[in-house]
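All the exercises in this workshop are built on plain-text protein records. The record below serves as our worked example for the rest of this section.
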Amino acid sequence: MDSPVSRRVAFAVVVCVLVALGAYLIGPVAHRDRQPGGQPTEHQPGAAGTPRAASSPSPWAVGTAPPSGQPDIYQWLPFTQTGLAAAAATVTRFGDAYGSYSYAETATAYGASLRPVTSAALVDQIKAAYAAPGVASARAGAKQVAVGTATIDSISAFGPTSLTFDLEVSQRITSSTGTSSQNTRYSVTVTGGGASWQVTSVELATVGNS
């Protein structure tokens, strides 16, 4: 007979497999192409990070049914394939904006670039960090301009109304002293459902979401 412990272990294994499959399936939507000629938006210093290469391609296109013989894992998950694609697009758009900033951009302008995909409370927190006197003066003194690109690595957690993604943000930073690159990994949580999602938490991946 199965014991409660063995059943819990089996359930944990199933969850891990589903999370891994989810990470595999979001490959096609893990990175949002930049618009030609788009201007970088200012972002929080220290949030700079540039996404690395996108995940492996999905076995079938997002928004389409799986081929015959392949399981539809979404019947076991609290979101649809379309919902997952929308959540991933929201996170990538956030990461691109979060990693891009200019020394000439105000905290208000920086926050405005995040607002379309970010909760008001989180925007206020990020703006406050961006405008911190020491950080702002260092950015202005070095005439820093950063362009960020975000790439989703995997899904680390999910629930009925939330998804947490492991995101890498890659930045190319120019300043009065030259050009440099920086990669930073984040844990980003979105809440919502269907086609409507908002980023409600962002933390360094080494810290993790609380």
In short: The first strand starts at residue 101 and ends at 102. The chain has one domain: 4-204. Residues 57 and 149 are 19 Å apart (CA to CA). The chain is about 30% helix and 25% strand.
